[in-house]
C-alpha cells in the first residue's frame, strides 16, 4: 500500500494535446479530473463538461437586491425619515431616484459577481496539492496539465499512470498531499 | 471548404415564395392606400396628413436605417455585416419610393405645420425669430439635400457592390469602406435635421438637443428589428438556411438589445432633464404627453419598448433562438409605431388621447407598398455578396 | 525555469500581435518588466521622478488649502465652480477609456483590446482617484466628506436624493469600486504567473497572497470566463452612466448653456475621446521604452486613433447642435450663453477648443497620420488640452455670465489652481509608474489567447 496521494498529473505542450487527453480521460470513465492551463480554453470546458455554472443566477439576485434596496433607501429617507420640500418637487420624486437605484443595482451585481466567483472557485486557497509538483509552476506560463484525482472511483495508481502515458505527455508525475 | 458549394443565387422555390409575399404585401398596401384615400375625403385632409406624417417617419426609418447599418458594417467588419448586407442594399434601393412618398407631406405642409401660416407667425415673436429656418422654401431645400445625399449613398454602395459581385473584390478594393465613414457622418447630421424639420417643427415652440439623437437611435433600432425579422424568415430557405447560424443571429440580437437600451437611455435622459428643470418653454411638451390618456401610451412604451424586450434579450439562449428573437423583433417594430405616434400625434391632440381609423389604414398602406417594392429589389441580386473578402471565414465562423 | 530563450526584440507589426511569439516568450517579456532586478529604464526613472515631484507639490497645495481655505483658489462669486470641477470632469472623462476597452470591446469580441486593456484599466483607476480629489477638496471641509453618504447620524439630517451632486457621489464611488474589482479579477491569473516566475522570496509571498492561490484550473477558468462577461456587461452601462451623471450636475441646474438635453451622450462621447487620447499618450512612449512594439502594435494605435476620431466627430456634432439649438430655441438666455462663449470673455478658450476638438480630429481620416506614432502622440496631447478647455468653457463661461448681467464677473485662476491641477497629474504619474514597476502592464494570459498556437486544432470532425 502506497501512502495516499492527491492524484497523478500529466504535462502537455500544446492546448490541442491537452484537450484530446481530457476527452480521452472522460471517455475512459474518469470523472474526478481537472486540467490546469495558462489561459482559458473553450474546447476544454466542453471536453470536461463545465459549461453551466450558477454565477449568472447569483449576479441576478445580487442585482435585484441592490436595485430594491437602492430605491427603498431613497424612498425611506426622502419620504419618511427626512422629508424636505425642495423646489416644490414631490417627496416621492421617482424620476430622480432612478439614478441611484441603477448605480446600486450595478454595484451589488458586480460585488456578487466577484465574491460569487471566489466562492464558486473556493478561493482564496494559498495551498493546494498541485503546487507540490515542481514543474507545475509552468501551468501559469506555457504548459498544460491534466490531473486525475485519487478520489475517482476508477483511480488506480499504476493503471492511471499507464493510461496517462498512452496520451503521449511530456511527463507524468505524482501529486502528493 | 464548404463555402464554395453554397450557391447564393435565389433558388426558384424561394423566388416563388418571395413573389407570393410580394403579392400579399402589394394587395394589403393597395387596400390600405385606397381606404386612406377614401378617408382623405371622409375624415378630412387634416386627419389624413396627421396619420400620414408619423407613418411616413416609420417608412424613412425602415428604408434609411439599413443604409446606416450597411455603412457601419463596412467600417467595423464582422460576420454579421456580410449576412445582412444584401438586405440593407435592397432597403437602400427603396429610397426613391421614400422620396415619392414624401410628396403628400409637401402637399399637406399647411395642414401639418403651423409655421407656413403667415398670420400665425406674425402674431408670435418666437415663430418670427425662427422664420429664417422654418419657412417653406428652405424646408424644401433641406429635404432636397437630405434626399440627394441618401440617394447618392444608396447608389454608390449598390454600384460598387454590384461591381464586386461581377468582377471580384480587387475591382472595388476599399471604395466602399472609404465612403462609409463620411457617409455615416452625413447620415447622422441629415437624420438630426430631418427630425427637427419634419417632426420637431410640428410643435415649433419646443426644442430639445436630444431629439436628433433619439431619431438616430430609433432608426437603427427599427432597421435592426426589421433585418432580424427578414433574416429569420429567409433562414427557412436555401441559400440562407446554409449560411445563417445562431452566432450571426446572436450578434444581431446584441445590437438590438444595445439599441433598446440606448433608446431608453436617450428618452429617459431627455425626460429627467426637462422634468427636473421644469421650465415653461420645455415642460409643456411632456405635460401634453403625460396627461389626458397619453400617459397610458407612455407607460406602454416604458414597458413594451424597454422593460420587456430588455429583460428578454438579456438571455443568451433567447438571442440564439430564431423564432423567439424574430417575435421580439416584430414586437419592437410595433412599439416603434407606438413611439412615433406618441411623439407626434399629441401635438395635434393636446387635450386628450385620440386614435382615428386612419391611424391604421395609412401605416398599413404605406408599409404594404413599401414591402412590395423592397421584395422586388431584394430578388434582384444573390442573397450574399459572392466576392466579398473573408466570405469563407464568415461561413466558418457560423459553424460550430 | 525558462526552457525557451527569451525573444525580446520583435518587429513592429500590422497585426494585433507580431509573429514569432510563443506562450513562453510573451510571458517572460511582460513579466520581466516587473521581475527584473536591473534599474528600470531612464524613461521610467524620469517619469516617476516628475510624478513624484508634482505629487509633493500637490501635498503642499492641499496643506495650504487646509490651512487657509478655498480662497486660495480663484473661486469668486459668481464662478464658484471653476478649475476644480473642470479638473474633476476632465479626469473622470479620461477614466472612461479603460473600462470601455476592457468591457465594451470584450462584449464586441474585439481581440485587439487584449494587449492594452490592463494598463488602460489602471489608468482608469488612477484617473478616477485624481478626479475624486477635486469635489472632496472643494467641499471646504474635506475631512467631513462622509456626510455625503446617507447614514444614521445624531444631526438627524440626510442627503437630498433629488440632487445630481448626490447621484454623482454614488456614481463615481460605484464606478471606482467596480473598476477596481474588474481590474483585480483580470489580474489574478497574471499575479499567479508572477508568483511562479519570481525568485525573490518576498515577491513570491506578495504575489502569492494577491493571486489568492490561482492555479489555472479548468473549473475555475469556466467560472472566470462567465464572471468576466458578466462584469463586462455590468461595467458597460455603468461607464456610460458615470459621465451621464456628471453631465446631470450641469443639466439639472437651469443655468443657461448647461441645461441641454443631449449633454449625457455628448459628455460620454467627450469622455471616451479624451480617454483614448490618454491611452495613446501613455502607450506610445511605453511601447518604445519597453520594446513592446510586437505586443502593442501599430494596429492598436490605428484602432485607438479611429475610436478617438469617431468620438471626436460626435463631440463636433454636439458643438454644432448646441450652437444651432441655442439660436433655434429663441430663448434669450440660451442664445446669449452661446454667443458669450463664442465672443465673450472666454472666446480664445472657446476657439482653441473648437480647433482641438472639431478641426484636429479630422486629420485622423488619413491613414498616414494614424500610422505615425509621433504625430499621434502630439494629437493626443492636443485632444487632452481641447477637452480640458471644453469643460472649462462650459463651466466657467456659463457661470461668469448667467441670467443677471449685474452679477457678472470674470474668473481668474491663481497659482494654487495650477499647483493643485499639476499636482494631480503628479499623483497620476506616480501611481501609474508604480503600477508599471509592480504589476504586469499587459494582460499576459489574454495575450496568450491571441497566439495562433492557442487555437485547439480539431483532429476528428465532430
Which key phrases capture this entry?
heterotrimer, A: 177 residues, alpha+beta, 2 domains, four-stranded antiparallel sheet, 5 helices, 4 strands, C: 462 residues, mainly alpha, Formate dehydrogenase/DMSO reductase fold, 15 helices, globular, disordered N terminus
Would you mind describing this structure in some detail?
The complex is a heterotrimer of chains A (177), B (400) and C (462). With 177 residues, chain A is an alpha+beta fold. Chain A has helices at 15-28, 42-47, 55-81, 94-121, 157-166; strands spanning 5-12, 33-36, 144-149, 171-176. Chain A has 2 domains: 5-52 and 124-176, no CATH class; 55-121, no CATH class. Helices cover 48% and strands 14% of the residues of chain A. Chain A has a 4-stranded antiparallel sheet with strand order 2-3-1-4, covered by helices on one side. In chain A, helix 3 packs antiparallel against helix 4 (94-121). Chain A is rod-shaped, with a radius of gyration of 25 Å. The model of chain A has no long low-confidence stretch (mean pLDDT 87). By secondary structure, chain B is an all-alpha fold. Chain B has one domain (3-395). Chain B contains 18 helices and no strands. Chain B has helices at residues 12-42, 45-76, 79-92, 95-107, 109-112, 118-123, 125-130, 136-167, 175-199, 211-234, 240-243, 246-277, 283-289, 294-313, 316-319, 322-344, 358-378, 391-398. In chain B, helix 2 (45-76) runs parallel beside helix 17 (358-378), helix 3 crosses helix 17 and helix 8 runs antiparallel to helix 9. The mean pLDDT of chain B is 89. Chain C is 67% helix and 0% strand. Chain C has 15 helices and no strands. Chain C has 462 residues and is an all-alpha fold. In chain C, helix 5 (164-197) crosses helix 6. The radius of gyration of chain C is 23 Å and the shape is globular. Chain C has helices at residues 23-35, 42-68, 83-107, 117-138, 164-197, 201-211, 218-251, 263-289, 298-328, 332-343, 347-359, 367-370, 373-400, 415-438, 444-448. At the A-C interface, helix 1, strand 2, helix 2, helix 3 and helix 4 of A face helix 1, helix 5, helix 7 and helix 15 of C.
